[in-house]
Write a structure and sequence with these properties.
Layout: H1 8-74, H2 77-86
Length: 105
């Protein structure tokens, strides 16, 4: 059997192909690494935005609860009675209140 020998032209082509393949692999690895870093940065930003929104929701719930308590305090009979006295209001005397009935439909 005769051994097949590579010509110098074929040897040069195989060497160039190997170098080209390595360059493509290195560029691909670099691109994927950059993509991975970018995705991690985006994920971290989304986490901070999510926490910020949760904090806003919690703050608004607390504010709404405080406003409900304040409204109930202002509408309590004792506070309304004191406010009415400050404004010079008093209970209605007999005959001062008139009731108008709605007509039946």
């Amino acid at each position: 059997m005769e051994a097949v020998k590579n010509s110098p032209e074929q040897a040069g082509k195989n060497g160039k192909g190997w170098v080209f393949g390595m360059i493509v692999l290195l560029l691909s690895a670099l691109g994927l690494s950059l993509l991975l870093v970018w995705l991690n940065v985006e994920r971290t930003d989304l986490g901070y935005q999510h926490k910020s929104r949760l904090d806003q929701i919690s703050e608004r719930k607390n504010t709404a609860e405080k406003l409900d308590v304040e409204r109930e305090r202002l509408l309590s009979p004792a506070v309304l009675l004191n406010r009415a006295k400050e404004l010079g209001l008093r209970d209605a005397r007999p005959g001062q209140i008139r009731r108008i009935e709605q007509p039946k439909r």
